[in-house]
Amino acid sequence: MVGRSLARRLGRGFVDSDAEVERLEGRTIAEIFETDGEAAFRAREREVIAAHRERSEVVALGGGAIAQPGVAHRLADSGTVVYLSAPVETLLQRLGDCRSRPLLRDLDPPERASRLSELLAERGPAYRTASLTVDTRGASIAEVVDRIVDGLDARVRVAS
Question: Quick one: pLDDT at residue 155?
Fold first, then answer.
């Protein structure tokens, strides 16, 4: 939602890497995980990211994409990487029942919170490579987009 709104605001194209993987595969991410495993999904995800790297688009990534080997570096070389941060509690509210989230799907709520905390800790070094970090806690989509645009504008002023 944020990515699509940001793309509209910037007058750019938009692609959601997870949706694009599903479109290309003709099945859901959960189905890919179940039949082919996470490694196969991550390989396809890297292909999608590479295919959109050189375009002037807003690309929304799934939470684990940037943490894959070499992805953070390639993303940084091709554009501005924005990390939308939020605490575990906020993320869990946004994720809902997690049925479509293979890494969280079969866990009860306390286990989900614990696993999500672990994933954030594991992925933290990759997330910290982002050019811009935006705290999304308690913010509407429009407010998050405003924060991103303000951050992008500030980066342009500093570079000038």
Answer: 79
